[in-house]
Amino acid sequence: MLSVLANPTFRAVYLAQVISLIGAGVATVALGLMAYEIAGAGAGAVLGIALALKTLTTVGLSSFITAALERFPRGRVLIGLELTRASVMLAFPFVTEIWQIYLLIVLLHSASAGLIPSLRAAIPDILPNERDYTRALALTQLSYDMETVASPLIALLLLSLVPINGLFIATLGGFIASAALLASASIPTQRFASQLGIGARAARGIRLYVRTPMLKGLLALTFSAACASAMVLVNTVVLVQSDLALESQFAVLALAVFGGGSMTAAVAIPALLERLPVRVIMFAGACFCLGGLIAGPLVGSYAVLLVFWFGLGAGYSLILTPAGRLVARTAGKADRPVLFAAQFSLTHACWFVAYLTAGLSGAATGMSTTFVMLAVMATGGFLVATRVWPADRATAPTAVNADHGEA
């Protein structure tokens, strides 16, 4: 899996991504602690709304921003968006009200809505061989998992030295370092020959996505993964600090265990894909998510919570790690940016619903009812996936011609 790092361009892009992710993860931990300081036991609702605004911004803007930026040099676009995110982070240490958190989340993720799909669309151009690209996807998922594990630990270390606001400054430094690494990489230019306008290009990506059975199945399974991760990200601090009456560092450790489960699965996926169809692996991941949510009301101790969080993390990764490969195999080069943007936008719609449910239900009805609600929603995603992505399509995805739609 590490052999792909021999490619100097991918190595620079990957390191930039890791640094950026860790910085963003530290900021997410800080945001949760800040919300708890401001709202107390209502922090779950604050985080749920904040994360829902993040996803709503992504859903609404990702396809349009990506389509608008296709005409410009890819490297400059990536650097500019990363520096934009850094500039937004400058304001976080001055937050004193809940509405300010919401505003800054929208501004931050307006830039992320263009940055992340553009970066994901560049990786298949850097590594055109599918086996190398699969390894790169596993390594990329591993970086997301490392962020989940490393960010809380780094946050704990920093909190022993600086106040919560110092965590946001650390994120600022991460974004600037990421931009510097991107500037050092020879990122391939993107092929852009479309005469369609921005709106038409954005709509084309979404249209191609929803016409492909395999990608519709991916979207439904992503909804199951979103339900699992929303429970973890939104309600861990409430479960640990309010329900179990433990200190904040135990909430941080629980988030790290979720990341550890995801990391374990991500490391195993390249070998699993050599032996099993991708559909089987992803449906197995959905079963992990369903099982953890269904049994969630049984959580009565911190040790049990950690076991559940590890399993939910593994299921989450089994669904999301192969996702980029499915999109890349479906898209022609000319449509790859807008199709990745459609993936980014549509899947974040799943997180929008899941975050709101996890946050508002947790605050209004309690954790047991929230587990049940999210389990029902995740089961719905699983059942839809079995219907729209039949087994005989598992190894024969619909191909999309680069210029003329479906092949």
Automatic annotation (TrEMBL):
The chain crosses the membrane at residues 12-36, 42-65, 217-238, 250-273, 280-300, 306-326, 338-358, 364-385. The keyword Lipid biosynthesis does not apply. The keyword Secreted does not apply. Keywords: Cell membrane, Membrane, Plasmid, Transmembrane, Transmembrane helix, Transport. GO terms for molecular function: transmembrane transporter activity. GO terms for cellular component: plasma membrane. Pfam families: MFS_1. It comes from the Bacteria. It is a multi-pass membrane protein. It is found in: Cell membrane. PANTHER family: MACROLIDE-EFFLUX PROTEIN, MAJOR FACILITATOR SUPERFAMILY (MFS) PROFILE DOMAIN-CONTAINING PROTEIN. This is Putative NreB protein. It comes from Sinorhizobium sojae CCBAU 05684. The lineage of its organism: Bacteria, Pseudomonadati, Pseudomonadota, Alphaproteobacteria, Hyphomicrobiales.
